[in-house]
Design a protein that fits this description.
The protein is built from six helices and no strands. The protein is about 45% helix and about 0% strand. The protein starts with a helix and ends in a 14-residue tail after the last helix. The chain has helices at about 5-25, 30-35, 65-75, 80-90, 100-105, 115-120. The longest helix has 22 residues, at about 5-25. The protein has about 140 residues and is mainly alpha-helical. It comes from Stakelama marina.
Length: about 140
């Protein structure tokens, strides 16, 4: 029993070594360069780079989000005639530039949303840590 284990290990090692010798040393490999002729590297005839325009933004200066939007949607597309007519009918060019200052005017007519909305709007700014419920 003691002699059987070393003999079995020796036979296994001999089988492994002979297997490696037969498959690794005698193997002839195909020459991958002889399979197909390598074509020379050439620049395509329509390959033309334009020099950068003076004052034009560099591509590296735009952020990734801007580059993604530009790649997906392209630049600003011209509006169609229907879109122009719709915007003109909606009053695109008749917007009052001072509309934001008129909103807080006392003469502005508003709808009363109730005391709860007034309390929420008039609440002091904060992170809500000291919020309390008050009952009238």
């Amino acid at each position: 029993m003691r002699k059987a284990l070393p003999i079995a290990a020796g036979l296994a090692a001999a089988v492994l070594v002979t297997g490696c010798a037969k498959s690794g040393l005698d193997r002839t490999r195909p020459n991958e360069f002889a399979v197909a002729r390598q074509a020379p590297l050439v620049i395509p005839p329509d390959f033309s780079l334009t020099p950068p325009q003076p004052g034009a933004p560099r591509p590296q200066d735009t952020g990734p989000a801007e580059q993604a939007l530009q790649a997906m949607f392209g630049g600003a597309a011209p509006r169609s005639a229907v879109e122009k007519d719709t915007l003109d009918a909606a009053g695109q060019n008749s917007v009052d530039p001072g509309v934001r200052s008129e909103v807080g005017d006392a003469d502005t007519k508003v709808v009363d949303k109730g005391s709860t909305t007034r309390d929420i709007v008039a609440a002091p700014a904060g992170d809500g840590q000291v919020a309390r419920v008050t009952t009238p």
